[in-house]
Amino acid sequence: MRIGVVIFPDSNSDVDSLNALAVAGVEPVRLWHESPDLSGVSAVILPGGFSYGDYLRAGVIARFSPVMRGVSAFAAEGGYVLGICNGFQVLAEARLVPGALLRNRSLRFAGRLVNIKPERLDSPFTRAATGAPLRVPVAHGEGCYYADEATLDELEANGQVLFRYVREDGAPALDPDEPANPNGSLRAIAGVCNAAGNVAGLMPHPERMSEAILGRDDGMQLIRSLVESAAAWDAAQRPAPKAKAEARP
Amino acid sequence: MSEFRYAVNVLPKPGILDPQGRAVELSLPHLNVTNVSRVRVGRRVELTVTAASEAEARGVVEGLAGELLSNPLIEAYAVEVLEATSSVKQP
Questions:
Q1: What is the CATH code for B2-16+42-82?
Q2: Cβ B49 vs Cβ B35: under 8 Å
Q3: pTM (predicted TM-score)
Q4: For residue range A224-238, what is the model confidence (pLDDT) as tens digits?
């Protein structure tokens, strides 16, 4: 199975994402931003970085690149798309996931390890997670999750909040000024998905914590979740030969 | 065809946390300024549209302002008509 990683100008976590996919046992495919052709991959990662220098607003210029036409069409068909860090910002600007990422409340770049907790384990992006908090790095200047109160309530009700920043004891870091919440995100939201559940974004970097040699492999739980979901999607795209045979008179 | 020059002024919407505005405000005591408040920091984009009419040019700039230059979830914009040259002197 093949999973694509989009490369925008100034993507910088593309190689980490490609590596994490290889470690997870799938064939990683580089997808260049200038082509809307996704080469028949079974899922897509929009990686971290500073696409187009973060000019204007983080992610907005990448949103209008040709590859995003392909990504939008793929998402509309139900294909799984995961945006990590800058990839999350691109998805939010493209309105493929709800909300916006504001400048960090501290105005400081946040580059350190944080704890996040999957809110649910039955989503395509968390199905291989244990449910325990994951220790993963953040590296961003614009990661303060924002949506208006009504939208936040709706996201909670629909189960679209996938990850929250948590304290050492696992409690959500709801105070936007507490250190466990690295950017001031409302309701400690670190990651969300769309209403259909097949497009998700998160600010932390699971791909940078996906092998023991990197110190920990917590992030691999999320990479494996994507791989499992992609495999299921892939299988659903091809009619099962057995079912076909039975359908014959 | 004529050229029409505009500025699009983008500001964080009321109620949206503006940490840059807050940082500017926090610096004011260092200047012994005590009568300035509600500082908001935004962005100004100047551009020229080549179009057959002012109405057509205005349509283009409004479309860009809402789709690219601002994010309507968090920012509000106002379009300003400029003279043929920039309102800010180029270096």
A1: 3.30.1280.10
A2: no
A3: 0.92
A4: 999 999 999 999 987
